[in-house]
Amino acid sequence: MDVPRQNADRKRLLRRIATGTVVLCAVSAVASFVFRLKPAAPSVEKGTVWMDTVKQGQMLREVRGIGTLVPEEIRYVPAPYNGRVATVHMLPGVKVMEDTLLVELRNTDMEQQEIEAKSNLATAELELANLRAQLELQRLDRRAALATAEAQYKNAKAKSDRDEMLFKQGLLLELDYNLSKTSCDELTTRYTIEHERDNMLQESLAAQLAAKQTSVQQQRDLVKLRREQLSALKVRAGVAGVLQQVLVQAGQTVAAGTNLAIVVQPKKLKAELKVAETQAKDVQIGQLASIDTHNGIIAGRVSRIDPSVREGSVVVDVGLESELPQGVRPDLSVDGTIQIEKLDNVIYVRKPANMALDSVTQVFCVSVNGQEATRRRVRLGRSSVNTIEVVAGLQVGDRVILSDMSQYEAYDRVRLN
Fold it and tell me: Residue 331 region, left (φ>0) first, then alpha (ψ -120 to 50), else beta?
């Protein structure tokens, strides 16, 4: 007896539905499992990353700055007066002494003033000579008048004495005696007056001569001043050292006070460092420092800290205390390291890339077998140029990756090949 076809088709349909349901469940389960899996750890070549081991002990805190060597003693040589640069006698780099001629200026007005002063002096000296001659004539005339008055006085006195004697002897009339005595008294008074006039004339002549001599001396002083002013146009170094710069050229017009040149002491240098403002807060005057000239290390000590911040940096001056290496000169680029403090018995590691002090960050810590590295949260403390204090998150002996791992931010672990 035949089975109806309808039942067979139905069984076949039910079987297909059951199989599809099982396959769908299996696929869903596999997809859910795969979705829950963590991303595969990327591979990193060991040779391309920088690693260090966490240590414990003494850590030297330092800050670093770049800068230049500058002279401690800088002498600017100014123009003494307005003028035009006639000649530049020296070029930068030569050794100079105090009287070394650097630049020669010209000023036609000052040259004319010197000529006028010399002419006025010559005129004044001629006038002084003429006055002396005139005063000498007056003095001689006065001496002649005084001599005449003296002679008349002596003659009258002798006659008066004689007449007095004759009068006492009764050989002369009283009238003649009185006339003789009156004449003597008159000439005595005239002689006294002439003598006083002579004294006054001598004083007057001396005053006139002194006044003219003073005028002549003023003219001489003026000539000397004009000559010194012209001499000052030959500008000299004024101090022994090295000519660092000449700031003018021949033919240039300069005003009084304009700097013409710079003279420095090449053996008296200091380092002028630019330290980041975030690190400069710990720098103190007197701290030890070392200056790398790229041709030797010079020991020094912080001597000055600029109170202002410029372009994110603070200028720190370091006085040099050891002998300068060969070839060191002003404006030489240098690297400076300043010792801030020594930290005893601290846990530290070499400074990771792009990590700041007193911050919380994450680093990759290498496993014991060195096959992989796992991300770990770390708190950092005080930092130095190359090292930084570990406050929490790492232990002594841990190896960490210090290179920039920002490209692996999405992964908690990496494989090391």
Answer: left
Which residues, in sequence order, are CB contacts of 242 under 8 Å at separation 6+?
A: 93, 94, 95, 96, 263, 264, 265, 266
Supply the angle between the helices 174-232 and 108-168 in degrees, to the nearest 10. Answer: 170
Q: Six-digit token pair at 235?
A: 């500008």
Q: What is the pLDDT of residues 308-329, one digit of tens each?
A: 998 889 999 999 988 888 878 8
Fold of 74-106+238-262: OB fold (Dihydrolipoamide Acetyltransferase, E2P) (2.40.50)
Beta strand 95-96 with 241-246 is antiparallel
Alpha-carbon distance of 409 to 385, in angstroms, equals: 26
Q: How far apart are CA 149 and CA 154, in angstroms?
A: 9
Domain ranges, ordered by start, for the chain: 44-70+266-416, 74-106+238-262, 108-232
Neighbours of 269 (CB within 10 A): 25
Q: Is 2 helix (H, G, I), strand (E, B) or coil?
A: coil
Task: Give the DSSP H or E segment for 102.
Answer: strand 101-106
Alpha-carbon 101 to chain mean position: 24
**DSSP secondary structure letters along 274-343:** EEEHHHHTT--TT-EEEEE-SS-EEEEEEEEE-SS-BTTEEEEEEEE-SPPPTT--TT-EEEEEEEEEEE
**Residue 211 DSSP one-character state:** H
Using CA atoms, how far apart are residues 386 and 384, in angstroms rounded to an integer?
6
CATH superfamily of 108-232: Helix Hairpins (1.10.287.620)
Are the C-beta atoms of 318 and 68 separated by less than 8 Å?
Answer: no
The CA distance from 221 to 226, in Å, is 9
pLDDT tops 90 at residue 261: yes
The architecture (CATH level 2) of 44-70+266-416 comes to Beta Barrel (2.40)
CA distances from 355 to 260, 373, 406 (A): 49, 19, 12
Residue 44 sits at the vertex; the CA angle it makes with 38 and 48, to the nearest 5 degrees, is 155
What digits encode the pLDDT tens for the residues 84-107?
A: 999 999 999 899 999 999 999 999
Contact assessment for residue 292 and residue 335, using Cβ atoms and an 8 Å cutoff: yes
**Integer Cα distance of 89 and 243 in angstroms:** 11
State pLDDT tens for residues 36-70.
545 567 888 888 888 889 999 998 888 899 999 98
